[in-house]
Amino acid sequence: MFQKVHLYLTAMCAGITAAIMLIMSLCYLYISEKGLYENQYTSFQNDINTIATSLEQQSVISMEWLSKMESRGNYSFFVLDNGIPFLYNRLGGLSDTSDTKELLEKCLNAYEDSLTDTNTSITTEPNFALYNPCFHAEFSFNPGGRKHEFYASVIEMNRNNSSLQMVVLCSLDFLEEQIHRQRTRFLLIDVTAVLMLTLFSFFFTGRLLQPIIENRRRQTAFIAAASHELRTPLSVILSATDCCRSADPDKQMGFLDTIQQEGALMSSLINDMLTLSSSDNHNFPIRPKEVELDTLLINTYEAFEPLARKHSLTLNISLPEETIPTCTADDERISQVLSILLHNAISYTPSGGQIDLSLLYKKNHFCLTVADTGIGISDEDKKKIFDRFYRAEKSRSTKGHFGLGLSIASEIIKFHHGTITVSDQPGGGSIFTVILP
Ligand code: ADP
User: Fold this and answer.
1) Residues 269, 404 contacting (CB under 8 angstroms)
2) Based on C-alpha coordinates, what's the Rg of the chain?
3) Which residue of 22, 202, 216, 286 is surrounded by the most CB atoms within 10 Å?
4) How do residues 104-118 score in pLDDT, each as one tens digit?
5) How close is the Cα of 71 to the center of ligand 1, in Å?
6) Nearest Cα to Cα of residue 291 among 366, 212, 345
7) CA-CA distance, 42 to 388, in Å (whole number)?
């Protein structure tokens, strides 16, 4: 299921960014290509102005001058005397003079049409050499039906009682080639970027999904473990009920006791699970206030001392001699943590052992420790005991221990921005240390 979501998110991330990039690239290409054609048209107009000015000042048009102009600007010139062509230049791509003649005719027709067109720029050059005034018009000429083929200009002038027409054609093939190269470059860049984006999205969404996958895995494990833990007391209750029905009245009391005990176990397990669930949903009730931790420790000691004595254990308490400041914490929750630690210490310490409860105040931190001389915890188990429903092998038989105590303690301490750790007691046993800021 997560694989599908991962692929879907990757496709969506990469698709959206690629679409934005593509739209931007297309906008850029459109603006840049439009600019290229406009610049070329302006430069063509400037060149025609220069040519017209030169023509006004020359009395004879020389071939040499024409070829010089031609080579300078990628232009082709045609001259018509009283409408009769007398000078052709072969245009690139056109194989013979009949093609050129046809092109010229089309150009002159287009010129006639363009005189009424508002896009045509028409200029008269009256200031220079009044003897040879020039008239010229520039327009876009597309004989093949494509959008940008030529910029054309027709320069008209009167010389020695005859009318001369000069047709100048500027082929836009080189511009098209340039645009084509630019488009190919953009396409390559875009394809590479889309590939990189897809890879990045794949890893990025994978990392985003990781906590969700982990959460889901933990939830499934939690439900499986919870169902497993609930099944045992439930089956005991069911079989005890069966037995109770058919048992003699004097034995029924024993079965009812069993049912009550198992019911109490189930109730405590359900309470633990609800606590963890509210912690997961971030509505764990923590009501911080100023707490005198030394007083809280004394109260806990007094509550657990009889229980420790019952198990033939010695419970000691050690408090700082000087007065320590109050700690901002939820006293009920801190008591709950101490209860969990002391319950464990009592459960996992054989008779005759010792449990030390102590409080220290150092560098603005409160340090609470519960040390026992019990069975100890292996290094392997130390990494897992704060996990939900985890119980070390040797403590599995201990009734009423579902492996949730330390995970609840760890959640409570986390909500207090503190830490809880476990270490070995020199000479055997474990030390649980809680640090509160
Ligand atoms: P449980 O309810 O089973 O005690 P906890 O979460 O409190 O669950 O503890 C997890 C496991 O850590 C226990 O099953 C036990 O194996 C180990 N453990 C906890 N405290 C001690 C201790 N003081 N000494 C030895 N083992 C301990």
Assistant:
1) yes
2) 47
3) 202
4) 888 888 888 877 766
5) 94
6) 366
7) 78
> DSSP letter string over 244-278?
HHHS-HHHHHHHHHHHHHHHHHHHHHHHHHHHHHH
Question: Is 101 exposed, middle or buried (CB count within 10 Å of its CB: 0-12, 13-18, 19+)?
Answer: middle
Atom of ligand 1 nearest to the CA of 396: 14
Q: State the closest ligand 1 atom to the C-alpha of 386, by its place in the atom list counted from 1.
A: 6
Q: Which of 378, 355, 368 minimizes the C-alpha distance to 409?
A: 368
Q: What spacing in Å lies between the alpha carbon of 337 and ligand 1's midpoint?
A: 13
CA distance 179 to 29: 9
Query: Residue 140 has what pLDDT?
Result: 87
Kindly list the protein residues whose Cβ atom lies closer than 6 A to any atom of ligand 1: 340, 344-345, 348, 372, 374-375, 377, 385, 390-392, 395, 401-407, 430
User: Can you tell me the distance from the alpha carbon of 421 to that of 437, in angstroms, rounded to the nearest whole number?
Assistant: 15
Q: Classify residue 395 by its DSSP letter.
A: G
Q: How far is CA 61 from CA 15, 91, 377, in A?
A: 62, 20, 108
- CA 237 to the chain's CA centroid: 52
Q: Which residues of the chain have pLDDT under 70?
A: 59-61, 72-73, 86-98, 117-133, 159-160, 393-400
Q: What confidence score (pLDDT) does residue 406 get?
A: 92
pLDDT of residue 115: 75
Please list, in sequence order, all residues whose beta carbon lies within 8 angstroms of the beta carbon of residue 367, skipping any fewer than 6 positions away. Answer: 359, 360, 361, 433, 434, 435
**Structure tokens that stand for 164 in this block:** 């001369």
- The pLDDT, as a whole number, for residue 160 is 67
pLDDT at 120: 63
Q: If 0-12 CB within 10 Å is exposed, 13-18 middle and 19+ buried, where does residue 191 land?
A: exposed
pTM: 0.59
The pair of structure tokens assigned to 242 is 């069966």
H-type alpha helices, 311-404: 331-347, 379-382
3-state secondary structure of 340: helix
